[in-house]
Amino acid sequence: MGQKKSIRRPISTGLIGHLHGLYARYGLDEETRRGMILDLTKGRTDSTRDLTYSEGQYLSGYIQGAAHENRDLSVGERGIKRQRSGVLVRLQKLGIDTTDWDSVNACLCDKRIAGKPLYKLDSEELQAVIRRLEQILKTRDQ
Q1: Which of 40, 90, 44 is nearest to 62 (CA)?
Q2: What is the per-residue pLDDT across 66-119, written as a single tens digit (0 to 9) for each?
Q3: CA–CA dist 94, 63 (Å, integer)
Q4: CA 102 from centre of chain
Q5: What values do phi and psi take at 10, rounded to 5?
Q6: What's the angle, vertex CA 24, arms to CA 73 and CA 20, rounded to 5?
Q7: 29: helix, coil or strand?
Q8: HSE (CB half, 13 Å, CA atoms) of 20?
Q9: How far apart are CA 112 and CA 131, in angstroms?
């Protein structure tokens, strides 16, 4: 049996143009983009024209995604951020001014709520605070 050769679809001129537009929009200089392409292709090339179509699509998504802050966060950090947001929503329902960090942390530092300011709470503690605040809201609404 002969070796099976993989067929790579070459990058289209439209996708090359799209990538060059992204380079300009995000201010990527030649050295930066060549380094990105070298990393993407594991050293095979540093030229946009030598990318495969799928590599070009991946690079496009990477460039656009790297511009967004949440892409830089790990899964755990995203979870903590979501939990903190959940705490703030519930505090707001309780009438706490969530634009004033002193008010937020004063409420959370109460031993009956968390005993710590928001930024010192880990994931498990945040989940417990959410449960406590939900219980307070439920009791208040009855």
Answers
A1: 40
A2: 655 445 556 567 778 888 988 998 999 999 998 899 999 999 999 999 999 999
A3: 41
A4: 27
A5: -70, 155
A6: 100
A7: coil
A8: 10
A9: 12
